[in-house]
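Write out the 3D structure for:
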Amino acid sequence: MSNYILLEHIKVQNANCIAGFTYGFPAITHFLGYTHALSRKLQQQFGIELTGCSVVCHQHQIQAYQPSGWGDYVFALTRNPLTKDGNTAPIVEEGRMHLTVSLILESSKAFSSSQQQQLVETLTVLAQRQKLAGGQVICLKGVSLYSDVDEQALSRKLLRKVLPGFVLTDRSELLKQHYQQLTATQPNATMLDAWLDFAALTYQAVTPENVDSSTEQHAVEWVRVPKPDKGYLVPITTGYKAISALHPAGAVANSRDPQYPFCFVESTYGVGQWLSPHRVPDLRDVVWRYRQQGPWYLCTTNTSKNVLKLDPEQEAALAELTETEITFY
């Protein structure tokens, strides 16, 4: 039997929309962190563990503008109070956005009839009390509980509830496939080159068919280069990779929690896809969960079960995405 909790239409204000090299939507780790925080509270009171979540976006608005009405967009930043000396406080750039999302939380156990009402009331309070992606939850439409042995019927019922919207799923296997195709024709290509083919907007000059380019001058037509695969594909941050040894608890100064071992990490990147919920046959395929193997700590869905099964050469190539420093202007 599958058990889910639907947090319907959560309105979030001033959420963080910068995720490593990417921007436009919070990192998936924000939503799994939000789920984990709820899980720790529910375990104490109800003995329920939340093992994953699906993210459905209904509306988003990035706080950015064009200074001259054209050209590059810049983030709308806050004007902070003056310092104690009366000088203008330094501006730390932050990317903010407003968004409305629905979260489908996967539960490890069924909900007893005696605790359902109390669970809904508790979640209604907890879900609005804690922050989501650094933003304030200002409204929650409702909390619903779903359990059924028929996974297909349960998926249709739940996904129909979150229409209209788009659900995010992991398609990092496309990055692996594209990298293999790219190195077949360009042996010096890196994993970063393959990832940028999904992230960048690229145009190429095309000569009109009725023009002889060898004998006359002509105007070319600039055509947008399609992404390596079809669909609403986006670059996303998918987790972390350890870049140092595991240090004993308290050995690293100023760590967040000195009671636990510590290691330094870098963000890892992959490819995600936005799908309309009616195109998802099985809800379990779009539930994000943490998976850990060796130095990798990744967020994946069932559509990318093989992401962690990398040979040494592919692991070294994927590590380039965590060790490359890039500055965007």
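The radius of gyration is 23 Å.
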